[in-house]
Amino acid sequence: MNTAAMQPSDEAELAEAIRAATGPLRVVGGGTRPVGRPVSGAALSTAALSGIRLYEPGALTLVAGAGTPLDEVEAALAAEGQRLPFEPMDHRGLMATDGAPTIGGVVAANASGPRRVQAGACRDSLIGVRFVDGAGNVIRNGGRVMKNVTGYDLVKLMAGSWGTLGVLSEVAFKVLPAPEAATTLALEGLAPEAALAAMAAALGSPYEVNGAAHLPDGRTVLRLEGFAASVAYRGGALAAHLAEYGAASRIEGAESAALWRAVRDVATFHGQAGDVWRVSTRPSDAPGLAAKAGGRALYDWGGGLLWLLVAEGTDLRAALGPFAGHAVLVRAPEAVRARIAPFPPEPAPVAALTAGLRRRFDPRGVLNPGLME
Amino acid sequence: MDMPKPNPAILGKRARVIARLQAALDPTAVIHDPAETRAYECDALTAYRCPPLAVVLPSTTAEVAAVLQACHEEGVPVVPRGSGTSLAGGAMPTADSVILGVARLREVLAIDLENRAIRVQAGITNLAVTQAVESDGFFYAPDPSSQLACAISGNIAMNSGGAHCLKYGVTTNNLLGVTMVLMDGTVVELGGPFMDAGGLDLLGVVCGSEGQLGVVTEAWLRILPKPEGARPVLIGFNSNEVAGACVSDIIKAGVLPVAIEFMDRPCIRATEDFAGAGYPDCEALLIVEVEGSGAEIDEQLGLIRQIAAKHDPVEFRESGSEAESARIWLGRKSAFGAMGQLGDYICLDGTIPVSELPLVLRRIAELAEGYGLAVANVFHAGDGNMHPLILFDANKPGDLEKAEELGADILRLCVEVGGCLTGEHGVGIEKRDLMNVQYSQEDLEAQMRVKDVFDPRWLLNPAKVFPLASSDTRRSAA
Question: Which of A276, B30, B157, B226 is the most buried (most CB within 10 A)?
Fold first, then answer.
């Protein structure tokens, strides 16, 4: 369908490619997250805008070209005992894609994993961007320092904009030290309402829980990270705090890491037939929403993020009715994504703001047109 | 500091504008007597003053919408105001503008402990948010030093930080949603009691937009469980460089203190004279605070002691009690008051990469010497957010201007080493004309395009953030 992708080798070439575009462009990072309305157009790849430009472990900052493979970023951080705080989701298993996720793609998707509950989302760690807008202007916002209120925060606007306002050329992050130790507490057999209450009790405790999920197999899992002695202490204290929900078993080491990778990547729905929806809501509303949806549910973020597997073509928004939050159709055949808007429709005044921003950042409508509509 | 000339057409219809405001809300909520509007002539940037045309103090979102709609129809600029604690002149009016104060919007609307969120009216003070939930073991994390007085609306406008944001982030990381009124009176809801945006992250760009995109009337905020305990340690050094290197090593070691505060010799001296906290006589000191259970605190402080020992500290004072903790914080918390005793000062707010601390402190001293002015440094070292305090004498002609020039040079230096003009105070009018140092015209255009969408006629707080020359065309089109 598409011929070989345009692959500008630097930001100036990227700007030139966008200025020269005469029709829609399909912006591609690693190509591992085909979310949203299908976009047809000439492929524009960021793959050659690659490489770590600056990494200062003592200042907890890293700057990289948008096309840098995520693996390369994570390996560089690991070598210094640091990591991206927000635990970006790898969509490949869920979306049945291959290729190498890029750091720019992570930002475009605002991909954030279980640690969102404590360390924030991708957008919270992102401290600077460079991008080219739809008119070919090169724009810089934020920088490489972690406290910066100089002018408007377009960094947040770019995170999760799926390449529709501009094509990222460079991204800068605040990073954090990787912990010395981690442990997972598991509670068995709680009904969703009880699981939500247990997770709320855990996240409302002073024990710094940084993962809280309720799995389709009935387990409710809670993660602690930090210095070894501290993790040991908090593990005991948290188990006592949650005694009314049953005795917590422990999952340690590689098994714990694998479990949270599986939560992060929604492994339980990999290869399963049906559409996958991602519902962001008030945690305590999640069990009710899951019941209305039917199908299978994975609760992450203490219930604030609900992954649902439902029959293909289900209009989940109609089934859920109005609620505090929104539902995004993440995985479905193209025909379904053409019929059911993958991104939630916005109330008219908000939709007008969104449309206004799109018109100004992409006046010709060439950047992933329609993807978020 | 230049401000645009007031629009004579607006001044000419003053009575009509006031009548429309009185019709839009409870007439007692409209202040127009010049003796009373003077109370609103400036914020905490007191060097610049100008009484507004009128002041309105609405009590509901609907009243805010009615006021904005009336001003929009009349083409009158509106300057939103929280508690007026901006150090950047963010709430400074012009003579042809209406101040919209949110001081009467201060209710707690909902406390949702189960979901760790609170919904408040935006005029509530920062500290009152924590007070509403602390008996249940929760707190609201951003803690600007004006937290007793400053309003959440102002925190959202400026994306305020505080001493503890090294661990907990700034306002934008703790803001879940807002109810906001656009300049034409349209009410929008952005975000809510959930953790991300379904479409474009409009909430993210509203936070920190300095009251130029809309007037926030209500907010959903994230609240956090209080830690079991917290304890500071005070470490003294014989040079700024060594103290800076120690900060970097602590961060690299994997300890994540809630705060790392830095004071240099001039500041230590001033606060000792003022507060007598018993600080050592040294070139630089750090206050590092860690959290957790007693044993966890001991472990972290032990690690910090090991790291500090490599830097040959002249003092390492670990707090052993509440009283000792209070004493360690006493000097830091009195620093601004202490400097005020010495004379007038300008407080800067640039941020730099932590690795550049030693260089920047040295260059600041050299610049200050060149101007013949004294500078004291007290700041959040963990995240590189500096607060150089430039001392001057307001009664000496030309001294303020000289201090401002030195301030501008220091901020240029911050940008030069990879930092920024403002870490938590905002641009306002104070740093407006330095924006070109950090951003290209294209960068600023991109930001102004956002304002074009939210406020096409540029009536909301129009003379702030962007250099007047850059925003002139847009403002005069209004």
Answer: B157
